[in-house]
Amino acid sequence: MTRYTYLFILQIISCSFAATWVKITKPTITWEDMEVSLEGEKKFFCGEFDSSFTGRYHWRFNGSSILPERTQIHRNQFVFLAGANAIRNQLPGEYECCVRETLGNACYSRMIVVQNRTDNHNIDMTNSTLLLADEGNTYYIRMHDVKRVEGVKCTLDGVNVDNFKYPFLGRQTKKTVPYHLKIENIERGGEVNCDLRLHKKEIVQKTFDIRLLRGFISSSQLPQFVYLIVFTIIGYILRL
Ligand SMILES: *[C@@H]1O[C@H](CO)[C@@H](O)[C@H](O)[C@H]1NC(C)=O
Ligand SMILES: *[C@@H]1O[C@H](CO)[C@@H](O)[C@H](O)[C@H]1NC(C)=O
Ligand SMILES: *[C@@H]1O[C@H](CO)[C@@H](O)[C@H](O)[C@H]1NC(C)=O
User: Fold this and answer.
1) pTM of the entire structure?
2) Ligand 1 centroid from CA 62, angstroms
3) Domain 120-215+229-239 is of which CATH architecture?
4) Which ligand 1 atom lies nearest to the CA of residue 62?
5) Burial 87-108 (b: 16+ CB within 10 A, else e)
6) Mean pLDDT of 13-26
7) Residue of the nearest CA to atom 2 in ligand 2?
8) Tens of pLDDT along 151-165?
9) pLDDT tens for residues 175-187?
10) Which residue of 1, 4, 13, 42 pairs with 34 in a disulfide if CB–CB is 3.0 to 4.6 A?
11) Which parts pass through the membrane?
12) CATH 2.60.40.10 region(s) of the chain?
């Protein structure tokens, strides 16, 4: 075989492989174990073999170019923006980036898993007006000391929100319901206003505040947070 025939065969082989990507699987990352930057973001690199690669990176999520909400690609890094934690249940899956390295066409793929942290909390707010909640958790809330309700409607800071769910209440429901409002994957605090329609069309209202614990305080919010504490202390001293 001459040198040219050899090169020719090589050429054919590389052409037939041009459209195929070699898939290289990187170790799985657990969402909870990813580092959080000062901006509240979680990032990861493609993890390509040739780190001097300067071409385009193509990112896919579960095989689709439609990336999850609250994510972005920044300088070849995949970034989960601040606030992604609240929707972490939507983020598990396969994140894949493809690079055309000199070594070949490779897709580096890794799974991100989210631990089952969907803590469900049953809260009785009958005698309480403040709910201290953990971002991302789900709350089943009782609001009034009644056996039967025929309808519930709530707003958060005056608007309807999608993650407020209500128990199924059939017209002739004889059964009592264990909760009046379910807040799925709680995301922000505010004032909740509810109308509970009781038997015989009586309406009772319930208002309470949600304050997020362990909510992320971004560096831009930090000064405000410090001022708030300082003013609270000053206010306290002046009142004494
Ligand atoms: C992505 O794939 C994972 C499993 O590979 C699956 O659990 C998850 O629900 C998928 N997510 C979406 C949004 O398709
Ligand atoms: C997650 O944990 C909760 C409470 O421990 C459990 O009820 C639920 O079935 C679990 N979900 C999955 C998908 O494992
Ligand atoms: C709420 O307060 C009433 C009256 O003080 C009391 O009877 C009831 O047990 C309280 N409920 C809860 C859940 O603490």
Assistant:
1) 0.52
2) 6
3) Sandwich (2.60)
4) 1
5) bbeebbbebbbbbebeeeebbb
6) 63
7) 116
8) 899 999 999 999 999
9) 677 899 999 888 8
10) 42
11) 215-235
12) 21-113, 120-215+229-239
